């Protein structure tokens, strides 16, 4: 097994996440599937996502506002657990294509300057949390819904990244507990986890440093571009399923 290549792949994905607050899976998962089965990638990456989010949350700790987003976080957990359970009980390809079309459409509206500003009410937070959590648990597409929601709130760059980081920290912890209960972790995963950790932490550190040098406009465009790419990949994956 090429452990160096595994480390390099997650390094690139983590660097992207360090810059924008999300996107590591967008790069890492398609490439890692060339080396590892999804049955190994999904539970091990949950550990890596938790470690990476912990590191970034510490770096962004002064911008974290947990109470303001408590409904988003709580419903994100509920949505993740529901997605994990429904993963083996319903057909997801049509749902994935519909969700992909939705996030691409909204992202394009934001890209061309169409204003969809909204207040972060408990109800809207709950809907977003359930949708993003379910997408994370069932479709591994948790980023786009919450990114679009936060973009509509007009958050500054640090608050945007900090909120995303805490959200993904909570979802990663939920996944770890869920996979642990399902006994999805094995001793053979340890070398893979070590390689992933090395690449993830170093990549997140570099991405965090790079992010400070980006303008707000460029940061917003990069975030929306990643949402569009993620939606396109999700649609293509469901279409070919």
UniProtKB/TrEMBL annotation:
Its main location: membrane. The keyword NADP does not apply. Keywords: Cell membrane, Membrane, Transmembrane, Transmembrane helix, Transport. The chain crosses the membrane at residues 31-57, 69-88, 94-114, 158-181, 187-206, 218-239. It is found in: Cell membrane. Belongs to the 4-toluene sulfonate uptake permease (TSUP) (TC 2.A.102) family. This is Probable membrane transporter protein. It comes from Pseudidiomarina marina.
